[in-house]
Amino acid sequence: MTAELGNFALALALGLALLQAVLPLYGAARGRPALMELARHTALGQFLLAAIAFGALTRAYVYSDFSVSAVAQNSHSLKPLLYRLTGVWGNHEGSLLLWILILTLFGAMVAVFGSGLRKTLQARVLAVQAMIGSGFLAFTLLTSNPFARVWPPPLDGAGLNPLLQDPGLAFHPPLLYFGYVGLSVAFSFAVAALLEGRVDRAWARWVRPWTLAAWAGLTAGIALGSWWAYYELGWGGFWFWDPVENASFMPWLAATALLHSAIAAERRQALRSWTVLLAIVAFSLSLLGTFLVRSGVLTSVHAFATDPERGVFILLLLGIATGGALALYAWRAPALGTGVPFRPVSREGALLLNNLVLVTACATVLLGTLYPLFLDAFDAGKVSVGPPYFTATFVPLIAPALVAMAIGPMLAWKRGDLAGALGRLWLAALGAALAAGATLAYGETLAALGLGAAAWIGLGALVEWSERLRLGRAPAGEAWRRARSMPRAAWGGGLAHLGVAIVVAGITASQCFQSELILAMKPGDRAQIAGYAIRFDGVSEVQGPNYRAERAMLSVLRDGAPAAVLTPERRFYPVERQHTTEAAIRTTLFADLYAVIGEEDAQAGRTVRLYHNPLVPWIWIGAIVMAFGALISLSDRRLRLAAPARRRRQPAAA
Amino acid sequence: MRRLLFLLPLAVFAALGAYLYVGLGGDPSRVPSPLVGRPAPVFAVDGLATADLEGPALVNIFASWCVPCRAEHPLLTHLAEEEGVVIYGVAYKDKPEAANAFLAELGNPYRRIGFDEDGRAGVEWGVTGVPETFVLDAEGTVVFKHTGPLTADAVRRDLLPALGR
Predict the structure, then answer these.
(1) Burial class of residue A310 (count of CB atoms within 10 Å of its CB; 0-12, 13-18, 19+)
(2) Reported pTM
(3) What is the pLDDT of residues A196-218, one digit of tens each?
(4) Which tens digits make up the pLDDT trace of B75-127?
(5) CA A224 to CA A68: how far, in whole Å?
(6) What residue ranges define each of the domains in chain B, with the CATH number in brackets?
(7) ipTM greater than 0.95, yes or no?
(8) Are residues A188 and A109 in contact, defined by beta-carbon separation less than 8 angstroms?
(9) CB-CB under 8 Å, B13 with A322
(10) Residue of A373, A374, A512 for testing the chain B interface, max B β-carbons within 10 Å
């Protein structure tokens, strides 16, 4: 019964979405307040209905209702409760429902927090949002109904891919979808602005918080995904340039560019039509990612079960949404007018450079991801573009942005003073030179460049803060006063840049200084890696809730005595008939000792892989710092959603 | 002119959409082998270059850090010693010392070995992962590519027929 309730709620939500897609637009064009007002209520209603549907599906998973086809195919009664819950979105149908839930949540948020918006703009934004919603609701109901029944119901479910039975991955999709779908708001704002024919400062101020929230979600989601790949796939790597990873990375790059160009649009009225285009592109890339992951056009290690028919439907959605928005852009954007002119060396210039680099990098990733498909289209055979392509193109492309990152925030708007900015960055330059020099002593040129860049960016962010606070040049009390009145956006921006520095350091050190040892070990054997002595103490059998595992004991010895124990596992899930490896990781925050075991060989012993990964935890720490920076920036007064209204009231109070 | 600039994103997207639509008709599980039917790619690394390759032969991309390479090693040894197949090895993204230690431990089935420390040859060969094995015919044309570790089955079914046996 619950499943039917969920199905009914989804159908009702589609009805509301269709209404909301049409009537408010008409109301905004004809100046009918009641029709515009309608959008706010239908947006809240849609969210409520989507929540009911999601609740119904969750209940079916929790109580293992195997008469629901999606549950029977993806769950199992022996699965721990947490994974029965996360199993809700661990498959195509359920993840679409999660996507819809978040999409309607964002719609409801625009309805609730958007009361300060121009009425026509709010109505149009919600209408566009509802068009996207209708598309996804129709897609779900027509091609991938999560509530479809099976008869007769199987005795037990087929289980969930064991690789996905993991806390890291359990929360990876919700965060990522929060990011993908959050970008839909920026998209809706862009389309609404084109419909209105107006892109002003208020518009740019409104787009930024949504983009910031989406960006924070994307950053955290991507980081969580790569962390999962790091400890679960057991290859010791954290990023594989897999099509699915690229599908999340491309919107991230576009959203990063959008965040920066929106600053220029808000402060200086510069880059306005470009910002609108970026908002369209960022969400289109999210849709493209969805298409790539679910249509089966590209093979990937973690694509969902794919189906060409669904592919056609998503492609159609993509065509209508992106094609429509870009056609509107071609028609209306020329009338938006050009911005205030600026010199190449200025804050605007630096933001433009940032945008050029990020967009080019994004295009490179897109090309690499789709290249196999292009060749296939011409029947020129198949090729999979591997990590060598991406490393060879992406890294040199992004390098100038890393150098410019520290300089940009030091430049003034309109006309900057490059020499002055560089002069004030002497401390960062010194730090970068020291870091690079120290690394060069180990004979790794690339590592020296990477760590030098990390020091440059990190110290650059600190210098920018101290400049703003006039640290060392004004009394401490003055600096404290300035720190308190410094806009949160400045704290957040600096923090995000600091996060990038930490990530760059982590990637560089883990790539250039990784130690690796693969050997066959018998109980009592010892191995040496990166100054650690490790003793293999044997393997024991362990029984988990829905798996059996072989657990190895590896003692980390200090002065001959065991200081820690690593217990990597090889699990076998009988229901799914799959093996997984569970890496054992001992981290000091400055390096990870990472161990995985392979199969037993009667003669040689057990295959053991040991890695020493310096600074690898910094990659995820840096990503957290970046996301945290975005959240701080989000709490800035200027971006707080009722800010324009409050500002209007201020003169009256004074 | 300015208007055309604003039309550009739409044009790019339309082309992209058309490609994606055509791509939908394709079969993603078909063998990924852009090189098949073409001469061996031009490459030169320490120890091995295109001119050194004399077909019919196998070109095996391996690395000491790659666990599946250990798994397929006995098969390569068997092919080289029992079947007399010529095998060229490319140690992909591997330090020469590490690759030599690997071969010292497990035996060396290769006629020649190229040390592709920075992965340049890997790019030329379109390597997506290690191990990969290419089959060259007598003219030096790539006739088959096997992705992943070799299995006895794959050798019997694909490799030996491709070698003309």
Answers:
(1) buried
(2) 0.81
(3) 988 888 888 889 899 999 999 99
(4) 899 888 888 899 999 998 888 888 888 888 888 999 999 998 877 787 788 77
(5) 30
(6) 35-162 (3.40.30.10)
(7) no
(8) no
(9) yes
(10) A373
